[in-house]
TrEMBL record:
<protein>
    <submittedName>
        <fullName>Uncharacterized protein</fullName>
    </submittedName>
</protein>
Length: 100
């Protein structure tokens, strides 16, 4: 599946504010994640099926969004540690990526 950016000029502040509106989101494989807390620019979320807590640095997700032209889960590896699928799901749920 190919995606295009819906807002390639978004600033980090706008991106972070948009992220903070989410209460939950889904990955491409429809795994559900619930937002639990924020620590400055770090999102703390729970994978519903395992109840395991994860952290994702939004500065890294933003950098990936701005720099990447291809948005496969594996494309996120240089930017994030083990949260590739949730990061892609987050961008899709926010409407920042649209199917081509």
């Amino acid at each position: 599946m190919r995606y295009q950016k819906s807002n390639p000029e978004i600033t980090f502040e706008e991106f972070l504010n948009l992220c903070k509106t989410l209460k939950s989101f889904k990955s491409l494989r429809l795994r559900e994640y619930e937002v639990k807390d924020w620590s400055q620019t770090k999102l703390i979320f729970e994978r519903k099926s395992t109840e395991k807590l994860w952290e994702m640095e939004m500065k890294d997700v933003y950098k990936a969004y701005v720099e990447l032209q291809s948005f496969k889960t594996s494309d996120f590896k240089p930017y994030l540690n083990r949260t590739y699928s949730p990061a892609l799901g987050l961008l899709l749920n926010l409407g920042l990526l649209l199917k081509e």
